[in-house]
Specification:
By secondary structure, the protein is of the alpha+beta class. The protein has four helices and five strands. The strands form two sheets. A three-stranded antiparallel β-sheet has the order 1-2-5. A two-stranded antiparallel sheet has the order 3-4.
């Protein structure tokens, strides 16, 4: 998973549209500023098929410090919630191959193949006499 910065997005858009990077950067920053301004006003932003941004309020609450058992007042907060739209969900749900699995299932990744043997740690070996083999029956006395 890679992290894409605003600069990289601006570069891609400017190259795709053959526009100056400075102009695309100003437009991108203006869009982000408007999104922030609308969320601060508690407005809901809906981008059809992409998703919805909205502000959610978390009420103030009283919690308890586990060390001192004192009550602590936690102030209310506003948080941004994003809900993916139909087109974004569809593209995210498309199957893809993970390169690190190389065609092996999750179970195969956990369990070693028959040809692979797990090494025994030296501390796991016992210094005492070997344990009796359970398949051999003890002589009757």
């Amino acid at each position: 998973m890679a992290t894409i910065t605003k600069k990289e997005l601006v570069d891609r858009i400017a190259d795709r549209l053959n526009l100056p990077h400075t102009q695309v950067k100003r437009v991108a920053q203006c869009l982000l500023d408007e999104i922030i301004a609308e969320l601060v006003k508690d407005n809901r932003l809906e981008f059809r098929d992409f998703g919805v941004f909205e502000c959610r309020r978390r009420p103030p609450r009283v919690a308890q410090n586990p060390r001192t058992l004192d009550n602590v007042h936690i102030p209310g907060k506003r948080r941004v919630r994003f809900k993916a739209g139909r087109l974004l969900k569809a593209q995210l749900d498309e199957p893809f191959a993970e390169p690190e699995t190389q065609g092996r299932s999750h179970v195969e990744l956990i369990q070693p193949a028959e040809s692979e043997s797990l090494p025994v740690r030296p501390e796991a070996q016992t210094d005492g006499p070997p344990l009796p083999d359970p398949s051999v029956t003890a002589p009757a006395s």
